[in-house]
Amino acid sequence: MRLTKAKSLLLLVSGLLLSSTGPLVAGEHPSETAKSSVIRMAPPAPVFDERARLAELANRRTGHMYSAEEASQVSGIREIWEASEFEPFLRALRNRQPYRPKADKILMSAKPAPIESGASSGFEKLFAAAGENDAYIYLLVPGMADSLEFRQEQRFASEWSKSASGYSIKNASPIFAEMRLRKSPLEIALLQHAIDISTEAHERAWVAAGEAKWEYEVDAQVAYTFKLRNADHWGYPSIVGCGTNATTLHYEESQGRVTPGELVLMDVGAEYDHYSADVTRTFPVNGKFSAAQAEIYQIVYDAQEAAAKVARPGARVSDVDRAATEVIKDGLLKLGLITDRNSKEYRVWFMHGTSHWLGMNVHDVGDYGTKLEPGMVFTNEPGIYVRPDALDNLPKTPENDKFIVAVRPAFEKYKGIGVRIEDDMLITPGGVKWLTEALPRRLSEIEEFIPRAREEAAR
Ligand SMILES: [Mn+2]
After folding, report:
1. H or E element in which residue 171 lies
2. Which pLDDT value is given to residue 35?
3. What pLDDT does 29 receive?
4. How many Å lie between the centroid of ligand 1 and the Cα of residue 369?
5. Which CATH number among 3.40.190.10, 3.90.640.90, 3.90.230.10, 3.40.50.2300 corresponds to the domain 183-458?
6. Residues of the chain with pLDDT under 50
7. How far apart are CA 7 and CA 282, in angstroms?
8. Where are the domains of the chain?
9. How far is the CA of 278 from the centre of ligand 1 (A)?
10. d(C-alpha 330, C-alpha 299), whole Å
């Protein structure tokens, strides 16, 4: 079966949507998938019925080159001109001159062309607003200066604001961010496929870690699986850290030893057709958690469970974060790694947030104050990191001296253990769906899976 994989480029500066498409053969599955295996092979890529895809595209601005009629239907905009009219149009606006292209440059219009003499030009209200400095031009202009991606728009905005035109530039990015927060069924299918590829990558890496001497050998299984399953790329640089390297949040070097008895923290996610997975597991090299490793692991696992319980329509990401954090605090207090659960002490061991939006970017756009709605996707990723230098790096204060003395015995016991578990969560009408549920997560499941998969690989 053949399918066109749409690659789209949106260019908003002209007010027109331009898109380019490239063909891709998909749907037919690589031969290796047919075999039954302990490792969960990614299922075939989603193939969309052409009519369903077009219907979908009528609702989402991706991939398809719109006809003027389709563009009008989607946007409600009833005036559509050739992009070449952009410059003369803006020049006229600046001079408060009504402007209308020649008939052959008008792709769609609600008005007759040209403007009849004596008739209203339709520009009176706009020019009046500009006269009051109350007219706006919307562009994608991110806050950061010198953006590579939006250089054209930024240049335009800076040129435009040099003259007192009465029109000010407004950033359209929040409008797009708002649209990207809620995923359609098609977007969710693509995201799920990125997650399925990532699941297979994790499982292959767990098998390889049994024989590997170096972290990059484990990492190589991830790169291999992404290629094997036709992922675009990784969604973000892979993190594969063994032992104390697991306590470094953005450890991307993969240059360390793989040592039996240690844990490996793997935060890897594929990107497929623009959608990125974001998945972390922490597993024992030899397949069996030590008692101390298991204690830390179980707290992080319980924190995830608590976070998932409060994730439902109407809740906020901050509620999810709070639920996970409370469990982490209780656990750290019990282990003796903090002395006061009502303080910020837990931040020494859990120094990042629990969640971020997920979609076309691994840290997707969107307002974190938004109430959760069906179709929103975010990560659930608590962690505990007992960095060997954590206590040395605390500012020298009397409070910290007391804290260090109090937690020293527990610190010595858990030193060098880093655990993060990260799953991708879709809000549904009834609560939440774990898009990453196929990848073993419970401690006993991981301990059961690893020897079985390694045995199969050895056969
Ligand atoms: Mn993440």
Report:
1. strand 167-171
2. 64
3. 58
4. 18
5. 3.90.230.10
6. 1-27
7. 34
8. 183-458
9. 5
10. 9
